[in-house]
Write a structure and sequence with these properties.
Elements: H1 12-31, H2 35-42, E1 49-52, E2 57-60, H3 61-75, E3 80-89, E4 92-102, E5 116-127, E6 135-142, H4 144-151
Parallel strand pairs: 1-6
Antiparallel strand pairs: 1-2, 3-4, 4-5, 5-6
Helix pairs in contact: 1-2
Length: 167
């Protein structure tokens, strides 16, 4: 995907357009559970990481990022991410939305339940200075307590959230 050229000067509009295209591609790859495409098509060549705010976990480098996706696609093999709000400034894109999936593997000590889960998320996508159209990181936020209650069957949640006008 990278259109990066070390001599290129990006306008504000070009950078935002490139970031949006990268995030859209990234999320479409996540929704297709195509782990092998994520790094080469959407991440920069160096300094990449995935920060999981719930649990305060960092996955460093290409192997760490792939480890995160192994866990994610194991726990929610039918994951689907829809975003409802998009915010972009040069170097950062933020997406809010809903994640759905079926709890299919152990997560946080909770054995696979086969239950459908639905949870709001916020993802912050951080772009490389050297390759402004490629990610160096994703930082994801969601309510882990609510997610674990759903996995244990203590609560059920629908996809409709007060702010939800999904794309």
């Amino acid at each position: 995907m990278s259109q990066s050229n070390p001599k290129k000067t990006w306008t504000y509009e070009e950078q935002i357009k490139a970031q949006r295209a990268c995030v859209d591609l990234h999320v479409s790859i996540e929704n297709a559970q195509q782990k092998d495409r994520i790094i080469p098509e959407t991440f920069a060549k160096k300094g990449i990481f995935y920060h999981l705010a719930p649990g305060i976990v960092d996955f460093q480098g290409p192997s760490g990022v792939l480890d995160f996706y192994d866990m994610l696609f194991g726990v929610l093999p039918d994951i689907h991410i829809k975003y409802s709000h998009e915010y972009d400034v040069p170097g950062y894109s933020i997406r809010e939305g809903i994640v759905t999936g079926t709890h299919s593997a152990e997560f946080a000590g909770i054995p696979a339940s086969g239950r459908k889960v639905v949870f709001p998320f916020c993802g912050i996508y951080i772009f490389s200075d050297e390759e402004p159209d490629m990610l160096i990181a994703e930082r994801a936020y969601w309510d882990n307590v609510n997610l674990m209650q759903q996995m244990r069957g203590e609560i059920t949640v629908g996809e409709e959230m007060p702010w939800n006008k999904t794309k």
